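TA notes, week 10

Several of you asked for a full example with nothing omitted. So below is the full record: structure tokens for the whole chain, then the designed sequence directly under it. When grading your own attempts, check the secondary structure regions first.
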């Protein structure tokens, strides 16, 4: 499974990060802090933990969920060792980044509503849209998580895909979410992907790793692409 490969490379990179950043005779800092969106942590963290236990690794991991704005602040304050984002952003001079290409966002609805069988984009205005809202260190802000070519209209706001999924399952609300966040739920067929003409469903996805080694991200980049393709 490719998620396993991603986790294995994250673990090996983190172990190398620790060993190379401490000289002989010094007690290493064995905590690696990984910051990303909650659904990415939910996919990767369990596998990394199992691998770490199997390898008898002495590393300890902190998997911290961040909003996009919070992640940038934490990176600039050097509070993270590894950061994974779905948005292109500048995290400071000490970080090097690897762009892993496109990660699709998909339009979702519960199984069975009229929109599930529609190809008419104009029908979207009849449904309330779940948008993202998060804390940006100063205020609660709304993001622009609406399908392309759709004018803004009233709906509801939630912070995480974990909150959005049961709302979609039990109402006529629709949502525009990263497919990675809902891949398992789509397999269970309790929500469905809506395909509408003239509406591209994609966004840039980038992987960022802190630059404490000469080339820490190459293998991780390749395997993250494999992970994305398998989940999507």
């Amino acid at each position: 499974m490719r998620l396993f490969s991603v986790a294995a490379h994250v673990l090996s990179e983190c172990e190398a990060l620790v060993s190379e950043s401490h000289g002989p005779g010094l007690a290493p800092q064995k905590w690696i802090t990984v910051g990303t969106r909650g659904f990415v942590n939910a996919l990767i963290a369990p596998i990394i933990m199992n691998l770490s236990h199997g390898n008898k690794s002495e590393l300890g991991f902190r998997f911290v969920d961040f909003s996009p704005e919070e992640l940038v602040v934490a990176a600039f304050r050097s509070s993270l060792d590894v950061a994974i984002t779905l948005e292109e952003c500048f995290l400071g001079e000490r970080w090097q980044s690897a762009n892993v290409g496109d990660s699709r966002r998909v339009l979702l609805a519960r199984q069975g509503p009229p929109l599930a069988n529609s190809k008419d984009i104009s029908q979207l205005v009849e449904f309330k849209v779940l948008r993202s809202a998060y804390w940006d260190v100063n205020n609660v802000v709304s993001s622009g998580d609406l399908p392309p070519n759709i004018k803004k209209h009233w709906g509801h706001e939630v912070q995480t895909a974990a909150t959005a999924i049961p709302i979609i399952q039990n109402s006529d609300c629709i949502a525009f979410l990263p497919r990675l966040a809902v891949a398992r739920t789509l397999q269970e067929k309790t929500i469905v992907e809506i395909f509408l003409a003239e509406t591209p469903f994609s966004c840039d996805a980038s992987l960022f790793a802190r630059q404490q080694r000469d080339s820490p991200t190459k293998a991780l980049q390749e395997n993250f692409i494999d992970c994305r393709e398998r989940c999507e």
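The two ends are 13 Å apart (CA to CA). Use that as a sanity check on your answer.
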